[in-house]
Amino acid sequence: MNKTVSAAAPKKKRRGASLVARKARAGWVFVMPFIIGLVIIYIPIVIDSIKYSFNKINILQGGGYSLTFVGWENYQEALFVDPSFVQTLTSGVQQLMFDIPAIVIFSLFMAVLLNQDMFGRAAFRAIFFIPVILNTGLVARIDEGNTLLEYMENTSETIETGTENSAVTEIVSMTDISWLFQTMKIGGGMVSYVTQMINNIYNIINRSGVQMLVFLAGLQSINPAIYESCAIDGATTWETFWKITFPMVSPMILVNTVYTVIDSFTSSTNRVMTYIADVYNQAGGNVVSSAMSWIYFLIVILIVAAIAAVISGYIFYQRRD
Amino acid sequence: MNNTAASDTKVRRRDKEVYNTNYVKTSRWERWKIKYLNVGFLGHTIFVIFRTVFLIGISYVILYPFFAKISSSFMSRNDFVDVTVKLIPRYPTLDTYRAIINDNYYLQALFNTTILSVFCGFTQTLICSIIGYGFAKFNFKGNKLLFFIVVFTMVVPHQTLQLSMFMKFRYFDIFGIFNLLGGGDIKLFGKVLGHLPKILPFTSLNLNNSYWPLALLSLGGLAFKNGLYIFMMRQFFKGFPNELEESAYIDGYSVYRTFWAIIIPNSFTMMITIFLFAFAWQWTDNFYTEIFFTTEGIKLMPDVVAVPKSLDTQYAGQNLYVAAIRNTCGLMIIAPLIIVYLFGQQFLVQGIERSGLTAE
User: Fold this and answer.
1) Between B86, B146, B334, which is nearest A31 by CB?
2) N-to-C CA span, chain A
3) Which pLDDT band holds residue B131 (cuts at 50, 70, 90)?
4) Residue A159 touches chain B, beta carbons under 8 Å
5) Can you give the pLDDT at residue A309?
6) What is the value of pTM for the model shown?
7) What is the CATH number of domain B104-171+206-355?
8) Using the beta-carbon criterion (under 8 Å), do B356 and A217 form an inter-chain contact?
9) CB environment B246-276: b (16+ within 10 A), e (fewer)
10) Does A64 map to a domain?
11) Between 20 and 30 A from A184 (CA), which of A34, A203, B84, B260?
12) A69-108 residues touching B, CB cutoff 8 A
């Protein structure tokens, strides 16, 4: 009797545990493609990339390649020998600091507008998401320094090649705006920032597609009952935006800021990226480019971490208990 | 008219009887005035006008380059030196299109890219859904850590891995197994220990100039922006009620069959969104195609962007003419995408709307 119980008990126990175990195992099976890819392809690639950045590489004639260990030499070359890397890096980071608020604010603003009930909303949405799908990769590269668009915009006959790209050259004249704001006692820095933003609007629209989608999704997930009760309590649209919409989409602001940083850092049209690609192409696989991109990656990580740390302090999470 | 007046009087008489009040019906003008001539309505009207103008303006900014590119693609050489010609060509011609199709291997590139993008789009959508589902619904050990690695793959710039990715697929090997079986040297800390008899005819595979690298990356959920897709699918599946799966389990479905028969059919909108992204980004991708394909190999879209040999660009309007030709190439590249987008855009917005995307 006693024996049978003890024989049956482990069996029963195993069966009880197996549901949890089976689900856990199923989870592993579902993420297995990623794990296999990670182990076979990704991790070796990352390790190789780190290894190359500490080596000099020679591609041999008969196939294969040889590495010679040089320590920190590539990093030293990137930071101290290369004349324009550090400069490109700092200006790239500076540009990004200007771009992030512009893109995030613009995409939030557009998402709020496109979320409203209005005539032709579907058409507007379809138009606004065109850049996400179409102006990427090759097309973005063709658009870089596009003389054609500049020519089409300018009514003047002279066009110079190699000038800065913008589809809409100077919507707002800098002098008009500063004249307007001089009397209002608004700082010159702020004014030039805003005019720069407006003149760069094509670029900003092109880069804020995914962010708009994320914000739209966030706005959709806000319970309409909250807005209703606000309206009953007599809140204006302005108040509703700052008291309800803004806190409710604040997690999206974090997601979008991080996404914007990553996206603009890793986009192929980024100045630092193009510089690194140039270095890579120059010597047919120059490893200094590997070292440069690791330095760059570290800076990206630091910036992302800093931004995430600052913003996450101000985020409002809706408790759903 | 008569009828309503009669009923009005009837109601008024009844009101008089019940409440003993005597009021006069406000005239239509009065009602109109109250309804429309107030600050709230005025503000709303101004807002709507502002909004419409603003949206149309931004739409113009987005669409204008396309108009400019389309019109310039029909211009002939003479139009670019003629300063009076802006948007409407004076001597319209199809030469640019003809030259690109004939000289730049456009049709081959179109065919090859279609195969590649459809394959990558489908695989990435399916694989990222599977992986995203695994992250969303199962609490296995290491879930958080693995998901952190997914985010990590998003953050690492491609250029960082450019060289090693090229090398990996140029000398493709899985943990040195091919090297071992192919009779290559076995090395340990730089010292050659010897080698096995030759079983395979090669020590490493050159996978470049084939679809293999992109196929393998897609299968592993590691291709372009796949981290983002996994993230989106995970958030989407997190919004699924657990009861749906539980009832399926009770009905005797296994976890896998539940996924296949219940979850997948219910997430088509989101999957179409992902497919649209994956397809379009693979279609216009120049980064991976330039690493893995040389210009002599399989013709793909990046090879199309060039000045066709048969067009003579050596004249006064060279800069503009070359720019116009390049833009025409761009237009021809995205022409199939525009058609796909027109069909898919409704799903794009719907998929996002239903995703219930929330950051956690």
Assistant:
1) B146
2) 48
3) very high
4) yes
5) 87
6) 0.80
7) 1.10.3720.10
8) yes
9) eebeeeebebeebbeebbeeebebbbbbbbb
10) no
11) A203
12) none
